[in-house]
Every structure is written in C-alpha cells, then in structure tokens.
Amino acid sequence: MNHxxxxxxxxxxxxxxxxxxxISRRMVMYYQLASYxxxxxxxxxxxxWKRAFLPGLIYSILxxxxxxxxxxxxxxxxxxxxxxxxxxxxxVLGLGKIGDLYDYRLREGKSRLHMxxxxxxxxAVWLALGFLFTLLLGEKLNAWGLGALFYLIFPPWVxxxxxxxxxxxxxxxxxxxxxxxxxxxERKDLLVIGITGSYGKTSVKFYLQTxxxxxxxxxxxxSSRNTPMGVARSLRDDLxxxxxxxxxxxxxxxxxxxxxxxxxxxxxxxxxTSVGPQHLETFGSLEAIKNTKYDLIRALPKxxxxxxxxxxxxxxxxxxxxxxxxxxxxxxxxxxxAENVEQRxxxxxxxxxxxxxxxxxxxxxxxxxxxGANVVDNILMAAAVALSLGLTPKQLEYGIAMxxxxxxxxxxxxxxxxxxxxxxxxxxNPVSSAATLTELAGGKYSGRKIIVTPGFIELGKAESxxxxxxxxxxxKVADIVLLVGPNRTRPIYEGLExxxxxLEKIHVFDTLQKANQWIEDNKQEGDYVLYENDLPDQYSExx
Length: 543
Known about the structure:
The chain is α/β, with parallel strands linked by helices and 543 residues long. It has helices at 2-23, 25-33, 38-47, 49-72, 78-105, 117-137, 141-148, 154-185, 201-212, 228-238, 257-265, 280-283, 286-298, 314-321, 375-388, 393-402, 430-440, 463-477, 490-498, 512-522, and strands spanning 191-196, 218-220, 245-249, 269-272, 305-309, 326-329, 336-346, 349-358, 363-368, 411-414, 420-424, 449-453, 480-484, 506-509, 528-532. 52% of the residues lie in helices and 15% in strands. Helix 10 links the parallel strand 2 and strand 3 (245-249).
C-alpha cells in the first residue's frame, strides 16, 4: 500500500506541469505567431502582458494550494491515503482545463494554435522539464508549494522550453534544408526564379505562374510560404519530375534572411518588386531593408536576369547599381510599360484593360479580370520574365486574361445585400495603402466608402508617423472610418482629426467582429467596404 500512496502523491506533483501545459496554449500560439523567434515573442508579451501573466498567476496560486492541501492530508484509511492525492491531481488538471477553456477556446480570435510537429516537440520538452523539476523537488512539501508558483512566469518558462528545444529544431531545420538542396542538385533541368520585395511579391508570384503555365509546367510556393522551411517543404512535398520552373517567394524580417533563401534555391532569375518600410521594426533601418532585398540580385549568376519594378527611388538606384543582365518595368523609359490603362465593370465583375508596350516595339492589348492600384505594375514584372523565357505575344495575352485575383489583396466581392466588400487584408503597408486609397477615390466607386483598418504594424519608431499619415489619406477618401484597436489606432484618429474629418463619422472598436457588426447594422446598398490590413491575434487589444 505504501507504494500506492507514493505513486498517488507523485501523480499529484506531476499534475502541475500537465495542467500548466493545458492552460499554456495561448502563450504557445503567440510563440508560433512570432515564427518561433524570441524577440518577436517578447514584443508580443509586452503588448499582451495581461494575457501573458494572468493565467499563470491564477493557475500557480490555486494549483500550489491544491498540492499543499492534498499532500498534507494523511488519513489513516489506506483507501483515502491514495484517493486524496488523486483527487488533488484531478482538481489541478481540471483547473488547467478550465483555464484553457476560458483563455483559449472560448475567446474570440482569428488564430488558433496549429499542432505541428514543432509544437508537439515543444510540448515534449515542456513535460520533460516539468517532470525533471518534479523529480528534483521530490516530496519536499514546502518546495512544491513554491514550485507551483514557478508557472507564475509563463513567458520565461515558454522561453526556457524553446531554448532547450532549439538544438533539436536547428538539427531538423538543417535536415530539411540539405534535403531540399539535394533535390535541387538532382534537377539540373529546373529553372529557379526568386521573388522578393517589401510588397507585391505574392501577387507577382501567382501572376508569373499563370503566365509561364501557358508554355511550361510550373511550381510555386503555396500561399505566402516564403521562409526557408516553407520553401524547402514546397520542394520536398510538391516538386514533380515534370516541373520545369520553380518560383520561390522570398520573405525577410531580418538581415541575412534573403541570403539564406538564396543559399537554399540558388535562383537564376530574380525579381525585386519594391523596397519600403515594411518590417522596419525588426530591420532597424530602411538601408538594412534595401541591402537585404538586394541580396537576391547579388546571388544571381553572371548569365542570370534581374527584373526591377520602377519606383523612381530606391529600386531605381538598385537597378542602376546592377551590372548583370537586367530589366526595369513600369515606365516608358524602361523595358516594359503600360499605356491606355482603364478599369471597367461588366455584370458585377471588374476588369483592367491596358496596352502592354516594350522597347522592342511590342504592343499588346490586354484585359485582366482584376483591379487594384498595383495590378498592372505586378503584371508587367511577371510579363518581363515570361517574355525572356520565350513566351509568344499570343501566349502572353492569353495568360494575362487567365490571371485571377490574389486572396486578401484588393479582391472585390459583391454580396446579395448589394454591398461591395474589398479585402485588402494581406497587402497593407504605407506605399500600397496610399495607392489603394488613390484607386478607391476614383469615380467608378460611386457608393459610400467605409474603410476598416487597425493601422500599420512593425514600423518601429516611425509607426506612429505612418499611421498619422494614414489618417490624413483616409480623410481624403472615406465617408466613414472604422478603427480597430483604440490604442494602436490613436495616431490614425489624430490624423483624421487634423485633416478636418468629421469625428461623428469615426467609430472605434476593440475587435474586428464588433466593427463588422456595425457594418451589418448600418450598411446601405452600393456601399464599398475596404478592409485595409488585418492583424493576427498577438496585436489584439482585448484583455
């Protein structure tokens, strides 16, 4: 019976790390949303300090009380000597489950923790450390009362688990990385195209895939998969023997990210769509962003091709710096440009018509079932590569006509209620936002213009300035502005106020759901509702 009592007491002690694991899912989700990077995770903790520390505080105090209480009870009955610790363990686990329901499952949110292999390994480390902690404490009652309080500091505990798991994750990363490189080395017939830029890269990627598919079998990275692990996964899971071209979208939040991707795929053609302040918070300066994006062009072979999107600014400077084969598009002084650009509506569908022109004399009348401020510029970059790879004008014209709107990027959907909803949730930065608002100000959008936005993020010290400028721009276009997040959108509000925008037409909400409900309650047929940016849960201001 003594062994049974000892076993029951150990279960009581071990229930603490198990219960903590149950209640930790929001915290681990924040770590996942930060791309498993500590600095991004800590920035989230600073923003969400109540959500970060309150669950651990409540759980630690109550679980500590349960452990001390049920470990101290020493009934004479053998049955109750075993039952009491087991009851305590059940209560501790129940406490963790209740915390999980309250803090994670029942909370409104856009994101959920994805139980990937990495998350499973993380939780394995969590349990191993928790059990080791238990073994070191043994049955020291006072120590265990204090031990339960260790989970008061959930964020450092998550960081500790991540630190312990890092060597294993790095090893797995290298396995995937080297396996993807092996696959590419075996495919001498495969042409690799890399695309990077502060904005526009996802649209250009899908446009280019559509164009090149008129002649070649093409694979591109899915969705916005643009990290080394994402690109490696595309190669390992999706590359088939028949593929002749692989298009890799290349994202970057830190210096060296593009170099690492180029080390992986070794592109022969590179497209630099734009350079702007996106992710300025992690880069530190616009100069660092510029140099990091240009790493793609540096990595091209001497006989490769670099394609630049004209901006009459930083990208133009990088184009002029480049000595290898190159093209620049978007202006009549370059290699490819557009004339006679017009947008039209036909049976609830939206089209952009334009004439594609080249310095070689090509003039091609095109029509694409997509509208938006940067659509034509993005098509021109894709068309430049397509022409360099031998597509005929007829193939190019047909391919352009086949281009479809990219999800969450100025995609207009008209509901049965007659309201036109424009989803620009994944494409909001200061440059593209200004272009989008200029587009919306056009005469073809005749209804009320309702703009929903949480503002810009990851712009470092310049974030308030850019959001204030957004307020100035909104005042020129919007009839009604719905701001999501009272604290984050304060500079936007001030910018609207400075521009003389009616304060009665500004509505501030703490969640997107409440903003959408306002729209449902106040909508009118013919309204245009623009969703300008959509932030993940780590930026929520709801406590």
